[in-house]
Amino acid sequence: MLSLEKRVLLPEDLKPIESLEEYKQLGGLKGLKRARKMPVEKLIAELKASGFRGRGGAGFPMAIKWDTVSKDPCPTKYVVCNFSEGEPGTYKDRYITSKNPYQLLEGMLISAHAIGACSAIIGIKEKYVYQIERLRKAIRELEKAKLVEHKFFEIVLAPNVYLFGEEKALLEVIDGRTAMPRNFPPFIMGVRYTPTSSNPTVVNNAESMCHLPHIFSKGAEWYRSLGTEDTPGTITITLSGDVKRPGMYEVEAGLTMRQMLYDLGGGPAGDKPFKAVFSGVANAVATPDLFDTVMDFGSMRAQGIGLGSAGFMVYDEDTCMVKVALTFARFLAISSCGQCLPCNMGTRIITEHLDNLENKLGSEKDIEDILIECGRCTNQTRCFLPMQASIVISSIIKKFPEEFKYHAGKECCYSKEVILPKLKSFDEDQSQFTYDPPMWEEEFSFVM
To answer: Alpha carbon of 6 to those of 208, 209, 237, 248, 250: distances in Å?
Structure first.
């Protein structure tokens, strides 16, 4: 373990926890036991005092979700774990759960107690076979130990589509429909809603749920002692791309990006310095002048970038930023469900202009048109996808303007292939990720 690592969610020795009994011997279920003895108001107050912010990307305080849904008079409520993990560059939910599925389930039970949920549902991509097997085994053990009622937990398998990770689309899939975001958020229109029952629902990603057992077993004050004032606790980093030591690292929030890249990642993989770092495809590019930024939600937002889900994709000086922009834009355009015109057409138009630049068919007008279209991609849609395209693509152009101007009618001078790290697996021994196949042959969606 490197000196900067702080393992709370991950086992100290990184060996998988294989049974409920082993989990209990390591202190598991103490948080649930304590939480079940607490009145709901005190439970929510404890979470609020911890300062915990969800780790799904937005950093939204979980206590607010609990408070809102717990006060709703509807008698039918649900807890849902978002186990989509489709954001490029992210692998943490699968990694944490492969090591310890029990803390995820314990966290969901604590959340269910807080809001009075009748059921806990895990929405997970069907391709995550190993994690599904581990979760099913852990659920059977909890049921056998009489710690949870039979069928209180439900696992819903989902297709491998990016929008499944959007919480309103996630609920649509759980309800048996396509992954197309509905109009209303989960606390207004929840799982299996009817005209007479809104079924308010709390949705959090897997890593967020995993923090809860530790907060309630050791207390809010202990949790506050980790991380920063803005972002208490640990974050689990996925570090991929042009670094010597790509991998999974759990650290206290508050490290700088430079510490992540050099102390954890070992510096550049080759002889070229770092050029750009992306925390997924929803935040602006981070260039070397920002590498001393503290890694927490507030500090990164103040610099115009973002922590996201702490999945960092690193590119060195041999990388063409026009290719990066095109790769990201095409991914988002293909991922659009097509319901909203600013997203459906906007992401497609941006991609087509970038394709012109990449293939020597473009001019400086293409650059102007991309920025105009980025301005038209508003948040007046059912999800954040068009804003993602606007934020990340416009930031790349503004940070590397000369590179884009060079591409206006000229051949790219970079030969290096640009990979969108849709992470498929991680070999711990080799410290190496494998990637999903490229999406270049897939078609854009279009809904009239």
So the answer is: 16, 18, 11, 12, 6
